[in-house]
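QUALITY CONTROL LOG
STEP: pairwise intake check
CHECKER ROLE: data steward
CRITERIA: each record must contain a sequence immediately followed by its structure tokens, with no blank fields

ENTRY 1 OF 2
RESULT FIELD BELOW
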Amino acid sequence: MDGNKNSGLSEPPPPAAGELFTFLKPYLRPHAWRIAGIGALLLFGASFAYLEPLVQRQFINTLTALERPQVWFWGILTVLTGALLRLCAAGESIGENSIGARITMTLKTRLSRRLLDLPVSFFHRHGSGYLAGRLTRDIDEMQFLYSAGMTGILSSALRLLGGLALLFVLDWRVGAVVVLILPLYLLAYRKFRGDHYRVGLAVSEANAANSRTLQSTFSGIRLLKSSAAEEKRGERLGREFEQQMILRIRRFRLGCRFRVLLRVIPGGCRGALLLAGVWMILEGRWTLGGLWALLRALDYVFTPSQLLCGGLIQFHSVSAAAARVMQLDRLLPEENLENGVEPGKLEGRIEFRHVSFGYLPGVPVLRDLSFELRPGEVVALCGPSGGGKSTIAGLLLRFFRPESGEILIDGRPAGEYRLRALRRRIGYIGQTGEFLTGTLAANLLLGVDRPVPETRLREVIGLVGLGARLNAPECDRDAPLEENGVNFSVGERIRLAVAREILRDPDILILDETTASLDGETEEKLMDFLLELLAGRTVLVISHRESTLRRAQRRLELKEGRIYEK
């Protein structure tokens, strides 16, 4: 077991509005002035909008009465009123999108850093593609909560209140009837909100799972092609895309049913008001302009009511994505990541005392393991494949925590050290060398916490025998490194990994099957070079090869979870 307190990513419950605001508050605060400006535009636009039907009423009445001077006045005022409202709406939209993009960037940056602080076992459990999908898609979807979506809800609420007031001013009887009808919107909202949250949660999970499958597929393209399994993998992708399609159609249909229900209510009211208005005009009790103003005021009630209910339903849908983002944000980082004892330069004494460990409950990999590596000693670790040799390296790097026992480095429990600083003092080279997307120089300087002069970089590249290769025009060291370093051979990647560790200058070095992919001659040269260069450092060599093992001062064999010295 890794001992980490983070449990699996189960389905999160719907977050309360206050909980969402508390989570978003630190991201909203830096944009307080922009938000205040948008709020002012929103209030101004909502207030000014109520004048529009009154101005239009006067314009229609003067037009039907053929009062020429007043027709031009009210006509120009009608045009100016509409233009001003459009300008306010454009200002709101620009501000909303600007704030939304900035907060989204900040959220993605913060959450990606939080994920990087989680233990290796968490990534093993959930997969990098899945987590990348949750990070990007969920945050993109929850942008509704801090951009046009929320301002739309607030604007709709303000316009609804103002529309009701305007309706009562124009004709209190019509206003009273509308007030009795509005609770139907509340009933529709309560009926659909739970379904929208559940479907939104399913869509978010399907998106993240599909990202995991795509990432696994593309990163394993060599395996797929060498196995001629493209068609079979394509079928699985097709099934996952079909599942995404089904969920999206389900969400769309759910939204359509909701919108149809919302549109039936105002449609019936407008029809009834139009018929009643025609009768009132024929009776001489209303004017055409008065009927027009009432119809527009009715729009000012029902349109924001529809938008408000739709916005609240959308709120429940995207709150599923927000709940997943908040769940990731609450995960606990690795223990003592930035706290603990500063290791400084290590002597390199390593001691495992009665260490037991297993990845699954009740399935031990290491049992009561005890051994010691003395400072400056080269110790070989051998044993059958899958026996736990790399697990020992993972425990030493604190990727996992022992179930029982303890690991001491220079006489101090490893858990007491500041974790990042400890890892900077321990070097690790695997079987193929690992690289990140970026330039070659950036990869060589990964984990180097001090400035490295250009001359030193050139010197180290020459030391590992890649000077001629990297001076070639087609392979400048500042050129982008292809994914997983595939534009270099396995042997070259191993040499680059060695160069990186030379620049890092660790006190302890772990060689985990580093020479397994090399031919005998290359292996011999590389090991001679490494051991000469790293003389005085503690080196743990994990290998199956006798030619590598015999270079060690001592040999330990891991068998059935226990250590035997040979």
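ENTRY 2 OF 2
RESULT FIELD BELOW
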Amino acid sequence: MVSMNSRVGTFRALKKCGVLALSALLCATVLTVVPSVSDEPAQAAGFDPGYIISDALFFNPNTMNETQIQTFLNGQVASCGAGSSCLRNYRQNTASRAATAYCSGYPAGTNESAALIIKKVATICGVNPQVLLVTLQKEQGLITAANPSSFQMRAAMGYGCPDTAPCDAQFYGFFNQVYQAATAFKRYAANPQNYRYKAGANNAVLYHPNAACGSSTVFIRNQATAGLYVYTPYQPNAAALAAGFGTGNSCSSYGNRNFYNYFTKWFGSPNGATQVRAKLEAVSGTSGGIQLSGWAFDEGVTAPVNIRTTVNGKLYSQEAASALRADVKRAYPLQSDRHGFTLNMPSPIGTSTVCVTAVNAGSTRSTNLGCRSVKVTADAGTLTGRSAVLEATARGVKAEGWVVTGASGTGGRLHFYVNGKYTSMHMANKASSDLKSFFPAATTNLLGYSEVLPRAVGTYNVCTYAVNAAGTAKVALKCADITVTTQTPVGRFESATVSGSTASVNGWAFDPATVNAIAVRVTLNGVAVSDAVTTATRTDVQRVYSAQGVTHGYQVAVPGLKEGANTVCVQAVNVQKDKTADLGCKTVTRVAAVPQGKLEAASVLGTTLSASGWAFDPTSTASTRVDVTVDGGPAVPVTANVARPDVKRAYPAQGSAHGFGYTTTLAAGTHQVCATARSLSGAGSRALGCKTVTVSAAKLDGRLDSATVSGANVVVSGWGFEAGVKAPVNVSVSVNGKLSTTALANVPRSDVQRVYPAQGPTHGYSLTVPLPAGKSTVCTSVISANGARTAQVGCKTVTR
């Protein structure tokens, strides 16, 4: 087991080839990277072991260009670790690869980035670059690694690393790994008969290299999924799936689970080519209503599809297609047998248009099942109704809708049945907003009901019935299994103020299931410090939540603040003590008696150091002194009097004039700059920190533009400067290797300034030196400001 960065978690180097016993082809890692769960989903939602990714997506090389890949890599790691070359910065020379039966030729490159290598390989092999990025992560955690090890880089895709032996060194190297893995995926697709896992067939897939962990039959639906199993020949067990990105149990493997999770997290659903399959089988008119039936499911998802129904363009209901349909399962073996629906709904008398749409659980895909014209009749005995709402509430089961008797619409009643037994009766005599859209002939809209049937925590089968006024006729409106659960508290953390070392925390909270007071828990810097009860009177809360009572405020004193910033968080706890609500956190600051501040930045430009930060004396709003030292030398005092609105926002009582800056010139080399804040009284101080900077030796640059013979002399012209030094520097002229003269390059050269605007305008030279008879070599050199370095910038041959 090799420890990796905290974002990635644990790397497991267990690998096993998913090929036939006679095949000598190589494969990749099995368990691979298991990240932490701090900010990851709780489950691998939607994972289908038989359809991990669609063929169209897997083999699409055009999903990202080089720039998009580089932007993606930059977004995963803020910066590479010191001395490290993580993928966002990684570069290497690449050798050419000849075209094969699986990939076209790869042209060699110099200093190619990881993004360019990934894009080029994806293009020549016809593999989605997103697949390569996800494989780099699930195999070695390279996408999110700021300090990748040499092993992670040389075995980047896990290619050529079997379970029972060390990795094969012939496949080492980042480019080599990416190229070999992409080639393997295309080889699997071109020769499926050579591999153990085949598309369009049932395959026994193990959960773990330990055969005692067992296996299950997986119907692999497509080649891309089969290729993933050849590369990583294990499926996640229930524990691995339930853990999301986390660790399951001793029989868990994670490679293909992590491929699905990372792909979904970064690029969307890898099996997004699935669709909602559905059929509206029958629609008929009844006395006072419409009945429709059929089936629907979302490929690759076990959650029921919702059936959305409109009547004459108005939304009527959205019900789950969860009725038993064994025939559907026989036709679609991968689906459950709970995908049927039979709906009864009221409708206006006469001919109506009913339209039906099947919508998946996430409302991301739908299938239109069409519209039908249906004739609805009515007579004096017609009894109908609508269940618009039947759902759990904080205190029981809520039902809303209406009941109509007769063609002209007279009153009726609502009956509740719970677990098959009659429970209560309610008059349908309340206003209904949609009644007349279904029954225009109704003489009143006061035929509605809105009731809450009190129930304790538990699951109930609840049915509602429309009953006529005489009690002689009954029509079922809706039945549903309703689960009344304990409720999550509601509340707010409103304020936190500081007095000395104690914070005063205020807000309100309640449990929707009760009018009684509830508990709140307070933490200080992550440590529980106080429990309190919401006993304070809050009439403003009662005005908004009238059913909840008035005693739901809390006021908590939190002692023990440390100097500087502190985080105070509040959590509300329901009456049953099994659900909580995080009401938020606030940062409060205890101001210390000694100066506060920070050395925030230190940088160099050329040979110039710039350091900055902020500081203040908590006893005054006046600007304080900061002493700056370089390499432990004498302290240089500066005044922290620069406007810093951000400091004022954090410390409102201190004002804003508390920023400081410091500049000086440094010699080449590494230097340490430190800052110390001094109190106004001189009695206290605080070290604000140190920064290390490096000054590189400045570059000497220039050019010998011309050398022109004039009588017994030669006139040489050109330009030269020392990078980061605006003042003119000396240039020397030599003739046939002997120094002839030295002078300042101080002639204005606007053309040089346009190219090097930071250097200033006066860096030209035009010098006249004696020239012997015959052919001579004339050279010029630029000399550094301190005279320690020279750089020849040109030579010319002239003849006198």
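INTAKE CHECK: passed for both entries
DESCRIPTIVE NOTE, ENTRY 2: Confidence is low (pLDDT under 50) at residues 1-43.
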